[in-house]
Here is the input.
Amino acid sequence: MILVTGGTGYIGSHTVAELLGAGREVVILDNLCNSRADVVERITAITGEQPQFAQGDIRDAALLDHLFARHKFEAVIHFAGLKAVGESVEKPLEYYDNNVHGSMTLFGAMQRHAVKRLVFSSSATVYGDPATLPLREDAPLHATNPYGRTKLMIEQMLEDIARADPAWRIATLRYFNPIGAHASGRIGEAPNGTPNNLLPYIAQVAAGKLKQLSIFGDDYPTPDGTGIRDYIHVVDLALGHLKALNHLAAHSGLHVYNLGTGQGYSVLEILRAFERASGKTIPFQIVPRRPGDIASCYADASKAARELGWQAQCGLGEMCGDAWRWQCNDGFIRY
Ligand code: NAD
Ligand code: WQD
Here is the structure.
């Protein structure tokens, strides 16, 4: 039995679907602050298997004790957290309470119940503005916003836990830019309100829900002047979690992995790829840079390939095609 915190969210739901497909039993814990309960039915429809669902908060120690007493969890995959960089600048305390305090409460419950196998959702944002590319796991860490600092703090907490108690087995996964959706079109990224991230914004322009894309700067030191990122299909990312779980079954200690494709694409390249996938023209305008943005960021994912036997399989066309299908099928309109 695997406990998946944040399991009705974007990446969590795709990971739960792959876990169920691999014959694992899952309990989802989610407070639905950024997702909806009907994702559970959608996952069931996709997989034919029903995950158990507990609506609640990782900061609720009594609820965690109840869940850990009731289920014999083999491991925890910890997705639950707030993840909007801009919002974290406006509401740092909310981010520290939710992400850091929430993680501490979860790890305390794991310790009390002797469940010491964890896969943690970290982010490439802990690297800050990289001095050299592609990014290796031993690159300097320098978060530049409260959200990134919560991830860095949790990573450091896990380092100390693993050092103090060798019984812990931890995989810290640093995601780059997850995009796309399950091929069924039943689950996908469903941002609250106007999307901050590039892909859901482009998808809504293609669907006619938004007028045009504002490209945040075309004066970066990149081939076409727009920002370069390492976009990875969310299902590839989900499968990386299953590989990490398998690795922890055979290896103790703490292990850190970049989960990216190793291939960077610019904003304009993504826009053109989405036009090809959707058959739609995406109107855009160039506007000034977004504060805090960096020029380029993409992974050296060779450690995950070497140690986990994991590599991203989906190309940009599939990522955009699956994102477009999700947008057309449902786009999970927020009520
Ligand atoms: P998401 O918002 O879709 O999913 C997070 C889920 O956690 C949501 O369902 C939300 O309701 C739940 N949640 C939040 N706080 C909670 C709490 N206190 N108790 C219980 N549930 C809570 O986000 P996502 O894109 O699926 O991201 C999942 C994880 O991956 C996050 O930790 C995020 O920081 C990390 N991450 C995401 C990206 C990305 O671009 N999406 C990149 C790197 C890392
Ligand atoms: C991608 C590129 C923008 C929107 C963020 C978080 C990171 C992680 C992933 C959680 C950039 C450009 C975007 C738009 C644009 N999340 N862009 N117009 O900023 O790389 O990473 O999401 O861990 O922590 O920082 O992703 O999709 O916002 O931007 O031109 O309307 O698209 O400038 O070059 P980002 P993004």
